[in-house]
Amino acid sequence: MKPYSSDLREKIVSAIEKGDSSVRKVAARFTVSENCVERWMLQKRTEGHVVSRKQDGSVSPVMAHQDQLMAIFEQQPDATLAAYCELLFDQTGLWVSQSTMCRTFQRLHLPRKKNTAR
């Protein structure tokens, strides 16, 4: 979910600061939660602004071992996801599920097609 715009945040905070309405009424008028309004008020008091903070997603722990995973894939391109999970665990001590391994292959654009000629 994207953060609310800074313009909307400023309008909400200024409406509260004017003393026109309560937090509940302002939240209802702008269709945001009361918690958002209270958080933005606190941020305005402590930081002096209501600019949204950077939203970081988490990085998959498998990506830290990307080089080893690529080497495993090159050595055994027709292995199953379960086999890749076991091989990665044997080499790095990191255990991941088959679904995590599948998403990692998708991120790395590695083919999952089996070669029946081998």
UniProtKB/TrEMBL annotation:
Top-level taxon in the UniProt lineage: Bacteria
Pfam families tied to this protein: HTH_Tnp_IS630
Transmembrane segments: none
Xref: InterPro entries: Homeodomain-like_sf, Transposase_14, WH-like_DNA-bd_sf
Residues covered by the Transposase Synechocystis PCC domain: 4-116
Name of the protein: Transposase Synechocystis PCC 6803 domain-containing protein
Classification lineage: Bacteria, Bacillati, Cyanobacteriota, Cyanophyceae, Leptolyngbyales
